[in-house]
Amino acid sequence: MNTFFPMTGSEADWNAAYYRLEDYFRAMRIVNKMHQSQLILHILEKAAGRHALDPSQNPTVLAMEEARAEMDQWFESILGQRERIAVAGTISLLAVDAPARWPLALLSAEIPPDLQREMQDSEVHAGPDLQVSSMVPRPIDVSPLLETIHLSDAFEKIRWSMTIVAVLVALVAFSFSLFVIMR
C-alpha cells in the first residue's frame, strides 16, 4: 500500500490538492478509482518534493503544475513535440474516447499502440486564418412596401379606433347599469 505523508504543509492544504487533482482527472474522464488514486498519489509525491524545497508555495498549485507537466510529457510521447501540446493532446484523448476504451492507459509508461495510432490520427487543425475586412456603413434599404405606410396615419387610425372602442364600452356599461337599476 502506497502511503503519502508530506513533511511540509498542512493536512488541509494537501487534502485540497488531492481533491483538485481528483476533479482534474474526473474532468479528463478517468473514472477508475484505483487508477485515479495511483495517479494522484504519484503526482502529490512529486509536488511534496517541490514543496519541501519551497514551503511558501501552495500545495494545490504545485500539484496542478506537476499534473500538467506529466500530461504534457505523456502527450509528447504520443503526438511528438509541438506547440500547445496540452490542448492538442486533451482534444485527441477525448476525441478517441481513450478514458473509456483504455481506462488504465493515461500516464502509463506503456502506451497501447492502437491508442497511440488513433490519437495521432485524430490530430486537430485550426481553421483558416482570420481575414480582416472593412465594412462601410450604408443607409438602411427600406422596402417599397414599408415606404407606402406612413406612421403618423397608422397612429391616427389606432387613436380613433381606441376612442370608438372606449365610447362603446362606456355605452355598454351605462346600459347595463340602467338595466340593473330598473329591475
Describe the structure.
- The protein is mainly α and 183 residues long.
- It folds into two domains: 11-121, no CATH class; 150-182.
- 66% of the residues lie in helices and 0% in strands.
- It contains eight helices and no strands.
- The longest helix is centred in the C-terminal third of the chain and has 32 residues, at 151-182.
- The termini are far apart.
- The mean pLDDT is 87.
Keywords:
183 residues, mainly alpha, 2 domains, elongated
Q: Outline of this structure?
A:
The chain is mostly helical and 183 residues long. It has 8 helices and no strands. The chain has helices spanning 11-27, 33-53, 59-79, 85-95, 98-101, 113-121, 144-148, 151-182.
The percentage helix is 55-70%
| Mean model confidence by pLDDT | 87
The gyration radius over C-alpha positions equals 35 Å
What's the number of domains?
A: 2
Low-confidence stretches: none
Helix and strand topology:
Blueprint: H1 11-27, H2 33-53, H3 59-79, H4 85-95, H5 98-101, H6 113-121, H7 144-148, H8 151-182
Helix pairs in contact: 1-2, 1-3, 2-3, 3-4
